[in-house]
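Researcher: Here's the sequence for the chain we discussed earlier.
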Amino acid sequence: MIPAALLKKVRKIEIRTTHLVNDLFGGEYESVFKGQGIEFADVREYVPGDDIRTIDWNVTARSLHPFVKKFVETRELTVLFAVDMSGSQYFGSADKLKSEIAAEITAILAFSAVKNNDKTGLLIATEGVEKFIPVKKGRNHALRVIREILGYQPRKKKTMLSGALEYLYRIQTRTSVIFLISDFMDEGYEKALKILSRKHDVIAIYLRDALERQFPKVGLVELVDRENGDTLLVDTASPLFHKRFRQMADARQASLEKLFKRLQIDCIEIPADTSYIEPLFRFFKSRERERRR
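Model: Thanks. This is the structure I predict for it:
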């Protein structure tokens, strides 16, 4: 039985994100994510000027008149959410945990997909694949995806994105849009990401908390790694600590930006302490401009 508190959270997110989809993102989603190809629809009689490569020779032979094939663009998309649910996702220095922000962003994108009759699915990852929900159409299925993210209790805490990326490459035969939602506190997944992005439209959603870039000066603090349990006592009043902390944060940021640029993967950076609406809106507008070129 689903806990009442969880259902209340899901309902709250549904109300908020449905409003955003209807007012802001619905049209942008449809214009950015087009169908994956064309499919046969019907035949009609040949008229001068038609491409002879589209002649249906079987129908032509039966009717003794030339007929050509008619094609339409396939609008339907497959949209998968690969969500990192490792220990670092259950951190937040502002009002929400990164895992809660991941659920809300997924809701916006999932309801946009539902509005356009697209399929949605979910993969939850930690050290490997913990849960996979195959793609399916409909609002109820999208609500299940959101509910799983909000209420999921991970069995493991560490991050190992490579396993999830390799799993998606193996099982997802149809070209899909894959939203990879993580804080990317991991190493060794670059090759798997490269291979997956050759086959699918992979979009990275990078969740970043303000404390991961700038630590407040509050004296001696014991830091705990949420993924392996290690502790470290640091003097946050030390200028040397702040210098090294910022250098590490800047190096990590530069490394991520370089990786996504090299693999030609769009990245939406979501600061956990501010609204995610503006970064999402900028992404849609940027994608729309690229399609028009």
